[in-house]
Amino acid sequence: MLSSVHAIARRVLVGAGTAALVLSALPAAVAAQDGGADTATNDLDELIALNQQAWNEDADLVREVYAADAVHTATFYDRTDVHEGVEAIAGVAAMEGTINAVAPRVDIPAAAGYRWAGFSDSAGGTVCLWRAFDGRIERHDCLLSANGSESRPPAGLADGSGAAAIDEILVRLTPAWGGGLEDLEALEAVYAPDAVHTVRFLNRTMRYEGPEAIYAVARNGEPFGFIGDRVEFEAPAGELAWAQANDIMGGTVCLFRAREGMITRHDCLLPVAG
User: Fold this and answer.
1) Which tens digits make up the pLDDT trace of 95-149?
2) Tens of pLDDT along 204-215?
3) What's the pLDDT tens digit per position in 4-50?
4) What own/partner pairs with CB < 8 Å and gap ≥ 24 does 209-213 have?
5) How far apart are CA 141 and CA 129, in angstroms?
6) Residue 20 contacts by C-beta under 8 Å, 6 or more apart in sequence?
7) 70: Cβ–Cβ under 8 A, 6 or more apart, which residues?
8) Per the confidence metrics, is the pTM higher than 0.70?
């Protein structure tokens, strides 16, 4: 069990008033390895709550939450910052402002340990993929909807008024990926002429600009199999922003932005090297 995490969490959280995030149940296969869903969920709840405390209030706690050789990446529209090792990650956490989760995590099946996708209000809406083993976070990879030099304000959940418009976009998007797509017109019907699609692997980022370049990837890609609920972020007037996890490559999360019914950004995090 995560005995060290239990002890640290009690020391930090008792009397601090820190509320645990609203969390979904773990996959049965993951829960079973720790002796049951309740125990596994409690362990991961405490790890996540303690990590939020580390990033928002006490960066020294990063050393208790992350593995010594952990890696944290932050992929902006124009670059990826890579922080290797717990000391580097602690340094980043000490400089960050408050980071708030805006939606329940999405649990992703894992052969060992835990994997999940998280959604926060940072930089206009951020999504992250996490991997933890033996009570410590090993990978923490994030996509931010901004350039690295921008200071975009936090974005909470949208009011739901854009749900129907997003549904309509997804009706056009779904057949545009995988299944031996034969026609570029399917891409042009859902992606803006200046659309950008990026794929962030563990070790590099691939970038595709415009429907024709995106088509070359989409025609050979895997169909979307969404996991968990869609998260709709606040966005400027006339725009839509949302994120959702899917089962591609064993569990991927993508961040979308759209304007006038057309996708302008489609950025994805994959849990594999490219």
Assistant:
1) 988 889 999 999 999 999 999 999 999 998 999 999 999 999 999 999 999 998 8
2) 999 999 999 999
3) 333 333 233 322 332 222 222 233 233 334 445 566 678 899 999 99
4) 211/184, 211/187, 212/184, 212/187
5) 5
6) 45, 46, 48, 49
7) 85, 86, 89, 136, 137, 138, 139, 140
8) yes
How far is the C-alpha of 202 from the C-alpha of 263, rounded, in Å?
Answer: 25
- The rounded Cα 272 to chain-centroid distance in angstroms is 14
Same domain (yes/no): 9, 139: yes
CA dist 158 and 234 (Å) reads 4
d(C-alpha 27, C-alpha 44), whole Å: 12
d(Cα 106, Cα 77) in Å, to the nearest integer?
24
CATH code of 51's domain: 3.10.450.50
Label residue 42 exposed, middle or buried (CB < 10 Å: 0-12, 13-18, 19+).
Answer: middle
Domain housing 203 = 163-269
Distance CA 142, CA 253 (A): 10
Name residue, tokens 């997003």.
Answer: 166
Q: Give the pair of three-digit tokens for residue 1.
A: 């069990």
How far does CA 161 lie from the centroid of its chain? 23
Average pLDDT, the chain: 85
Gap between the Cα atoms of 23 and 12, Å rounded:
20
Residue 258 and residue 188 in one domain: yes
Long-range CB contacts (within 8 A, 24+) of 14-23: 16/53, 18/49, 18/52, 18/53, 19/49, 20/45, 20/46, 20/48, 20/49, 21/45, 21/48, 21/49, 21/52, 21/101, 21/104, 21/105, 22/104, 23/48, 23/104, 23/105
Q: Does residue 261 share a domain with residue 128?
A: no
The tokens for 60 are 């020294």
Q: At what angle do helices 3-13 and 37-56 cross, to 10 degrees?
A: 50
